[in-house]
Amino acid sequence: MLSPTLKYAYYPGCVAQGACRELYLSTQALTQALGIELIELKKAACCGSGTFKEDSQLLEDTVNARNIALAEELNLPLLTHCSTCQGVIGHVNENLKQCQTDNPSYIEQVNGLLQKEGCSPYRGTSEVKHLLYALLTDYGLEEISNRVTRKLTGLKCAAFYGCYLLRAQKHMPYDDPFHPEGMENMFRAVGATPIYYRGRTQCCGWPLASYATNQSFQMAGMHIQEALALGADCMVTPCPLCHLNLDSRQPEVEKVIEKRLGLPVLHLPQLIALALGVSPTKLGLDRHIVSTQPVLEKLGL
Predict the structure, then answer these.
(1) Which of 7, 22, 101, 126 is the most exposed place for a label (fewest CB within 10 A)?
(2) Cysteine-rich domain: which residues (predicted)?
(3) Pairwise CA distance, residues 199 & 219, whole Å
């Protein structure tokens, strides 16, 4: 049976509080609809999105050990809705837990730096879990399906997992890192039809955007075209950085590949919350660059 109250230390990350505010809004709406309690970690810092370690691995580990320690203070798992945050913080957590056995002096060094800043020490007692996997493993697909009031029948959804969610950590206990099914199973639970295409587990191109823009947009365009060719009505991603490259920059992508695309790209909680009867406006579906109106029209909204 479902636990009466699921509670998490909520790490929203930077992008959901800025360029993808609709992800923040829809996560709040979804968890409220499901009765999940989120305690936002207001003092948390940016995970660095993998860039801190380019200067210093110790910097990346210490910053994210502090983020994890904030969740440990609450005796709760850390929940994020960003694949990049999951990959970075989850990887740090995984490594530091291993260091507790193999290299305790490194943990002492990290905690020494935290102590200097008046922060709680890293203990290695919290789990780092993406919203997708919290819903799949803690809440359960059957329970979500039972709460559907607006079945997404006929909506063809192409998952875009991205790379950080699947392969940034050494161990992926919730899904196959090369042949995942978590999002597709979620689509089925809310009545939608999953579309399988080659690029769903590949990089969106975001990391290249600052120094190889054309190549970045060509990658994004390739994935979108593949999904469209197989009849997708929309793409759905668990990563706001992927969303930026696939949705916000889709008009620029079109110019680079010289093709019209027009594929709506939804955040995962937006899709699920739609099936639970939450209004599109409350989910920020009017904030996207590529209009989500074709999705809403297909659902009779």
Answers:
(1) 101
(2) 8-89, 158-247
(3) 9
The SS3 of residue 78 is strand
Comparing CA positions, the residue from 34, 32, 47, 33 lying closest to residue 82 is: 47
Dist CA 110 CA 220 (whole Å): 38
How, if at all, do strands 193-195 and 156-159 pair?
Answer: parallel
Whether the predicted model's global pTM rises above the 0.85 cut: yes
CB neighbour burial string for 48-62, b if at least 16 within 10 angstroms, e if fewer: bbeebeeeeeeebbb
Longest dimension (CA), the chain: 60
Range list of H helices, the chain: 21-34, 52-55, 57-73, 83-102, 104-116, 131-133, 141-146, 164-167, 182-189, 213-229, 240-243, 250-257, 268-275, 293-298
What is the DSSP pairing of strand 128-130 with strand 36-40? unpaired
Taking the chain (301 residues) in runs of 10, the rounded mean pLDDT of each run is 75 93 97 97 93 89 97 98 94 96 97 96 97 96 96 98 87 87 98 97 88 94 98 98 96 97 98 98 97 97 91
User: Own/partner pairs for 224-229, CB < 8 Å, 24+ apart?
Assistant: 224/250, 224/253, 224/261, 224/263, 225/257, 225/259, 225/261, 226/197, 226/198, 226/199, 227/158, 227/160, 227/195, 227/197, 227/199, 227/263, 228/261, 228/263, 229/197
47: helix, coil or strand?
A: coil
Tokens of 163: 């790379």
